[in-house]
Amino acid sequence: MDAYPSEYVLHNLPFILLSGLGVEPELDPPTHSKHVLPGRAVTSVASEISALTGDRAQQLLQEFLSAEGGDAPWNARGVQRGNRASFRFRAVGRDFQFPPKKADPPTSSGISPPSSPTVSSAPVWILHSPISPLTPGSPIYPDGVIAPSWVSKHQHHVPAVFMSFFAFGSDPNTNSLHDNQLKTEINKIKGQIQKADYRTRYAVVLVSDKSVLDAPDTEERLATIRRATGLDPKNSLFLLPPNTSSTELRSFVTSVLSAVHPLCVEYYRDLTKHARRKKGRGTVPPPTIPPTRGTSQTLSHPGWNVRYDFKLGVFAEFRQEMDAAQRHYNIALDSLFGSEGIFETTASWLPRWDEIRLLADTVALRHIRCLLWNSYPTSAVQSWLRYRTRLSSLLDRRGKGTSNYGWAAWESRWAQIMAELIQRCELPVFRITTPISKDDPLVDGVNVMYSLPEKQIPMGERLPPWELLHHAGYWFKLSADHAKRRFIIARDIPEEDRSPPGKAPATRVSNRNQMYDLYLVPETHLENPVPGSGEGFQHWKDIVEKSNASLAEFHRRGQRRKVEQLQLEISRTLLYEKQYEEAFKVLRPLWETMTWRQEGWWSLASEVLWSLHECALRVQDPETYVATEWELYSKVFPGKSKYKHDLMGCLDSFQLDVAAGQKPSISLSTTDFLSCLSTTFTFSEGEGNVGEQLPCQIAITSNARPESTPITLSSLAFQFNGSLGDIYLVHETDRSGIGSESTMTDCSLDEEAPQARQEQRPKWNGTADLTLHPGQTKVFNFPITFREAGDIDAIASIFEINTDHFDLVCSTIGLETEASSMWWLKGGSRLKSRRLNRSLGTSVKVLPKPPKMDIQLPDLRTGYYTDEQVKLDIVITNKEDEDTEAVLEVRLLGRSKDTLGYSWVGKGASSPSKEIPPSLDGSDLDLPGHHVGLLVQGRQTTETIQFKAPSEPSDYVLEVRVLYHVLSDRDIPISKTSTADLVFNGPFEANFEFTPRVHDDPWPSYFALREPDNSEPESAAAFGIASKWLLSAKLASFAEEDLVVGDVGLEVVHIHGGATLNIAKETEAADVLMKPQDMNERAFCLDLQKMDIEDRRPSSVDMSLVITWQRSDAPGEPAVTSSLPIPSIQIPSSEPRVLASARRSANVPSLIHMDYTLENPTMHFLTFELSMEASEEFGFSGPKLRALNLLPMSRQTVRYNILPIVKGDWVTPQFKVVDRYFNKTLKVLATDGLKTDKKGVGVWVEAEAEEE
């Protein structure tokens, strides 16, 4: 947009003039008003009060200037910054001149014809603006439409708001005088503004030195000033308090601008109404003087409509109403290109034709900017295309055609304008947020290449791609293409048309103006001057500049292919102009990063290589010259017939001082650059063993051009992952004179031991003839002995070429190619390759040396039991061919984190009983572990470990590892590992039954309490309520073999609730042989007594069942003690209960005495209602219904005599006990010999009783 006047293309913002804050120097000051609006009727605005100075005034000025929107993006988000709108400011001090509203009246000498009589009376003139087409002195008089000075007038010289700044003192002695001076100055300035006859608004900012609290009369003084000056306190008079911080100052400026913004809008709306009224008159205003000279005519009515619509559009932009501006610009364009438009009435050879084209371009540019502002991207492109088509048709019909360099220059400029508009608008769709990742662009975000159509375009409408708005790079590329076409057309201009005007006939110069379109372009003798006539237009700079702008946009969006294409096109342009240094700067990065190598675009890659090769020679860059010569050796690149490829002597023509350190060193990688040599390393087998030789092979193949000279490598190295160091071959000339035929050579490599302790990998060195002719393959065979086990991969190859003039290093990372799985064989005089039986020949798995040591566990059982002592014998047999030294390592590995400890049987007292083995990685040559010692070939030894089985059932793995070395090679450790499963099961399981009993001892009396005696034992000191219980344990054998069970007892873990416990066995201790799945019952009597009679807490007992047992087949082994946890037993002590017991009568065999014992352990007097229901199964004697009173801490037994009627069955008396006070039915608890079911407590009636 630099080709157009800045007033035409810049976005218009409300103009505010700052007076009294000093003068701020402007980077791009506007033209003086006398040059924009000439005339003597200027209006000066001056003030006798000096301007504000100091840091505070400077800070205030900078805050206002920070709202300057000249550089803001051309969108609603850029103009509306934060909470305040953008403006355009000018700081002018105290003096300012308003330009004249009307032009000066013409003089009589300039208007009267020479033969006209003199008129004595002065005429009455109709005066207009100095830049109106009706004013004789205007540059567009009499038929011009509008000039850029009109936009400059409203943007730089006539403000919408004139804002004055005055100091507001608070000295009580001078307040009255100061206020009167302020009122006088303000009224004077207002009068001067009104005299200028513009609609400019006036505002005043008073900078106070005291706050309202310090000067209470401030409000009254301000009210007096308002009344005297007529300023509105809301938007025309402002007071800045003193001592404001930067944040408060910014907030004050924001509030002031927010208040005056409606004034600005109102000002430009008044100008809009004035222009609309003038347009609505429908008549052409009369000029000051009618044109009387030549064939000039006044501006036609369509021209005036274009002028008014352009004004209306500009005023709408001032108000930031871009939709209204878009509408007016569209009307102006239609008027320009209409059938009665000024294009149709103006001759193309006149200067006014170019002025109209300039105005049309401006209106179209502003129209497109409005569309982009209003988020109509597709409509903006369609408007851009439509204007180009209409202008092309117009020039072909009425102008000088579109086949000249002027039209090509305009098309280039028009595309560049679109690109710059997109950049200045900063559309959100084209915003670059995050860089695109090479690995996964969907993760980091995708930068769009074009904008989707707006919603106003119907869905499903098929739009051609060139009607979609692409990013700025697309338009810069289009501009560069048209610039190239301009250069091609200018290059074909005849020489007689390129001569300077002073050296060409006048008729020829006149014909040029008729043939060539010179709109915004230089003349033909400057567009493409003849040699020796000076420097003309630099086409190559124009093309490169626009291509670089396009390249930057494509690069920001990660369009790598387009970037490379543009770099190549730029280099072509520079090479055509012989700008080798500039071309070198473009080609060198392209050569380093181009993707055409990987994708096989050899013609494009070849062009880059040859161009860079030539540039490197021209600029004398030896590193680049050698590198490109190396790549050009490859026969995939098209060559040149007369060029001789000689890598070893390619720098002979360069002037290099090797002694002074000018010998270049070049480092290349086949990942980024193409190599004419390919190297492979292949292992003959996929597996090998430590200490054994494995054949290996290195193959070097030359893919160089047939006509190139041989290449001699100084060295060749291969690098490996794993336990193998580098393999290094050094060049040694072969005197046999093999020539260019492919050869296979057997090499002998020397093993180099590591020099330092941290270097664990040995290296291999050797020599070979490394001279390769084009198309030659050299294969080198050699064996390698591995010293350590593990995986080995060939990962890289590096070869060096050292000459007198340069050093070249070429590396290859990643050797996993198809050629790496080939093995070369010699078939007669030729070499043949065969494919290996594996996919990758660069890897080998080195296994440890095969162990021949035997490990046996002769007494290992199929199962073990918890808590038992286990002894295991480990038998080691040496089956190696020679004597060995060995150690044993044992680990017991389970699912838990803890490793099961063990000890070696027969170890000395100084040896630890529990040995935790070290790491089993086999890397330590000191052979850690249990020392076995020297083992003679064929002999065996036995070592024994013992450990205690875990207390919980679990599974373990016994890992026995013998680590040894043969005496002839102590550096290579050998290991043999044997594993066995150890399953530890629980030998027993038990079910427990807990029933109450009636305690025989009387309860302690609540009325005869005694104090506890601490000297008595715990059981004797307890004087609380005692209770008796029966614990029955049914023991089941889950072992897989016979076990002998000895003593079975109870172990008290903990007693809760303040009680003592006595345990008595009711089953005699005896050894019992239990077969698998056998049952054995043991009973225990528990006497529990509370420590204190007033203790009401419930008691609980945690116990374990302790079982002593041993295997039946190992009577000599020590007994094993196992424990089974018993669920916690809860014993209530504060609730009443009923215990039922039964015994047979001694006198009457069939009579059963049923005793019901009611216990009241509470501190309450309780009354129970007892009832016994009649039954058809038995008869009973005793009360059917009765009430029973129980004192606190007492118990009582009620007996019923039961005479059963049925025999051999259970009889269930329905005895019911109800607590009268709580209305709660107590459950009857059964004791020994009774059962409880849902009916109640039952007693068994023997069938033999009746027979007896």
TrEMBL record:
<protein>
    <recommendedName>
        <fullName>Trafficking protein particle complex subunit 11</fullName>
    </recommendedName>
</protein>
<dbReference type="Pfam" id="PF11817">
    <property type="entry name" value="Foie-gras_1"/>
</dbReference>
<feature type="compositionally biased region" description="Low complexity">
    <location>
        <begin position="105"/>
        <end position="116"/>
    </location>
</feature>
<feature type="region of interest" description="Disordered">
    <location>
        <begin position="97"/>
        <end position="116"/>
    </location>
</feature>
<dbReference type="InterPro" id="IPR012880">
    <property type="entry name" value="Gryzun"/>
</dbReference>
<feature type="domain" description="Gryzun putative trafficking through Golgi">
    <location>
        <begin position="666"/>
        <end position="1246"/>
    </location>
</feature>
<feature type="domain" description="Trafficking protein particle complex subunit 11">
    <location>
        <begin position="352"/>
        <end position="634"/>
    </location>
</feature>
<feature type="region of interest" description="Disordered">
    <location>
        <begin position="276"/>
        <end position="299"/>
    </location>
</feature>
<dbReference type="Pfam" id="PF07919">
    <property type="entry name" value="Gryzun"/>
</dbReference>
<dbReference type="InterPro" id="IPR021773">
    <property type="entry name" value="TPC11"/>
</dbReference>
